[in-house]
């Protein structure tokens, strides 16, 4: 028997992230989109069920390309509310070093639940803390991803350059290169899925120039090439980082990236703020992607990603909420709104449209993680969809529904489908007891900072 066909019928508005007309909705069959229905038409395929979307705005599921789930345990922690990146990290490292498996599982679940409720269907996470007893941190996250039914790229982060060797993190939070590589290889072999419709993927993600050795950068790039997985790291986030690279390596950040074999289309960077014109061109030629994290960049006063210059040079731009100790929300729609406003300060109102920003959060983000099967509404793409109602007070009196999502501040999807399955219905995550999760997560968060 063939899979059931569902017509998501006549949305109030639809953003496809391409030039296709789906004004009459989409037909979902199994895990994929089978047909786009033009305005005023009916599907040519016979459908078993109809979902009336006439009061909802339809989007491709949003894609978050940078996060540190564990940081939901240290949101709005008073000692780091008003400091920039380096002192922020130095005060947080000892707290984060106390992370255990239960706390990480709860933190990951909270972050993903928050993302899901904001219309996110695919997320990445950059986990780079593996204190003693937490060697299987990524395995812990794999279980949570499965429970929530999201698509995920879990990046095996790493820190190998401790304070004693001139790095930023304390010695007890770093691992040996060999340990990192062995675990990276194990995770790829065990969990990395390939091809269209992959639910879970692994990428390699040495943390940043000031927390890993050049050797682990080089070795990770080689391993990623051999295993055909993607590479991710923080780069050009702050001027402190740029100065660190100049002092330690005698190189600017992009030169450093090139020197360790990362200047290629396997790589996507978080932040990408402090580039000069020639570096922007080089990144574009190499096919590197950049994840823009506006809230984190504003909160830590790091600077502003030159998104349009990067795009003009051929760099794909995606969107990320970044870790919850520097955002402190995991809401991808909220992030898109902030991106719109922040980028308008640099490029003006005409260049930064709601459609452009939603494009970053969908198709752009998909490119960053090397996916062509998600991030847009088109025939054959995965049925990852988000529907937003606009019946709240904040939308009353609004006219253009797509613009209203960002301008009026949509924060919560009403329905979210991933791979043809409803994961959020009527604003609730299917099968998740949110109050219970919050209560357990709050306890774990309190414990983590106790007596620090
Ligand atoms: Zn980050």
Automatic annotation (TrEMBL):
- Domain (Amidohydrolase-related) spans 57-421
Q: Which UniProt keywords apply?
A: Hydrolase, Metal-binding, Zinc
Record-listed E.C. numbers: 3.-.-.-, 3.5.-.-, 3.5.4.3, 3.5.99.3
Q: Which domain of life is it from?
A: Bacteria
Q: Which InterPro entries match?
A: Amidohydro-rel, Metal-dep_hydrolase_composite, Metal_Hydrolase, MTA/SAH_deaminase
MF GO annotations: guanine deaminase activity; metal ion binding
- On whether Membrane is a keyword of this UniProt record, the answer is no
Concerning its family, UniProt says:
Belongs to the metallo-dependent hydrolases superfamily. ATZ/TRZ family.
Q: Mind telling me what this protein is named?
A: Guanine deaminase/hydroxydechloroatrazine ethylaminohydrolase
Origin species = Buttiauxella agrestis ATCC 33320
